[in-house]
Amino acid sequence: MWKKSILVLASISLIALLTLPVYAQAGTEKLARRLIQSYENVKSFLQSIMGNLDDETASKVEDAIARADPLIEEANTLLTSGDYESAVEKAREALSVIRDVLREIKDVDVIREGGRLRIAIGRVSRAVARVERVIQALENRGVDTTNFTSQLEEVRSLLEEAKSLLKSGDLEEAHEKIEEAVNDLRSLYSDVRGAAKEHLNLTREKALNRVKRIERASERCVVRLDMVYKKLVRENRTEDAEKVLKLKNSIERTLLSLKRHVENGQRFLALEDVRQLFRYLRICRRIGT
Q1: Higher per-residue confidence, 137 vs 157
Q2: Lower CB count within 10 Å: N or C terminus of the chain?
């Protein structure tokens, strides 16, 4: 189980890196080094478990590494010469070779679970950062936040445990730690929210206005994406059309989730939806008609 889980995490990380646009990094040099290091990490792991693989799978892994190694050597040479963009492309080629072999030795259900837990940890981590900002604002107002800070550190500790368990392949334990972190954070958020209303004048009206603005922007994005999707279909650009449709459906689902959480008074979950919609809108703005 643990071997499959590690392969899952490696595959997920590779896919994320392979789809990352160059301009998303501070510079192409940083991205090139990150891609090369990622390859070395995955290669090292694959070599460490080679003895536990059947002959056919081990042969596929060896062949993939033999084809990918020269590409990484080229990437390192290009990186040294200062041709960072070419280094990125060569490193991505090498990672694509490794990704293909990873796909052959992983379990689909485990992939989904590992990916879901990884995303969950990211979301909780971002929520922790937001709560921390409110706590800092309270502290700046002279409020005693010692108890809040202590509870937040406990949540962080749970997340670190979840990360370690995920890396070791213990998905069940990782899931339990994440759930524990979420529950503790919800309790903490309730207390922090009460203090914020008292000391920072955070009103329900302001929160609702923000929700309305993001809803309107998201609805406009859905309309735009629908137009782009139809255009791509007419041009027989099936793969691009599917990506646009997937984004459109994700926005629509999150909008429904946001409305439901607002109606039920689940402000913490509603804020998570708003955060997700902001990410979708950033992607939407890069999609031309």
Answers
A1: 157
A2: C
Structural contact between residues 185 and 124, judged by C-beta atoms closer than 8 angstroms: yes
How is residue 199 written in tokens? 């000391």
Query: Residue 207 corresponds to which tokens in the numbers above?
Result: 């929160």
Domain ranges of the chain: 2-106, 109-199, 204-285
- Decide if 71 contacts 90 (C-beta within 8 A): yes
DSSP-assigned letter for residue 27: -
Cβ within 8 Å of residue 56, ≥6 positions away = none
Banded pLDDT at 51 (limits 50, 70, 90): low
Closest CA to 95 of 47, 178, 176, 38: 38
Whether the Cβ atoms of residue 272 and residue 120 lie closer than 8 Å to each other: no
Residue-level pLDDT at 7: 52
Q: Are 82 and 66 in contact (CB under 8 A)?
A: no
Write the CB contacts of 219 (distance below 8 Å, at least 6 apart in sequence). Answer: 255
User: CA 17, 61, 76 angle in degrees (round to 5)?
Assistant: 50
Domain 2-106, classified CATH 1.10.3300, yes or no: no
Q: Where are the alpha helices (DSSP H) in the chain?
A: 2-18, 28-48, 55-81, 84-104, 108-140, 146-167, 171-199, 204-234, 238-263, 267-285
Indicate if the pLDDT at residue 5 is higher than 80. no
Maximum Cα–Cα distance across the chain: 66
pTM: 0.45
Please report the pLDDT score of residue 77 as a whole number.
94
Two structure tokens written together for 145: 């936040």
Token digits of residue 6: 């590690």
Whether 157 has a pLDDT exceeding 90, the answer reads yes
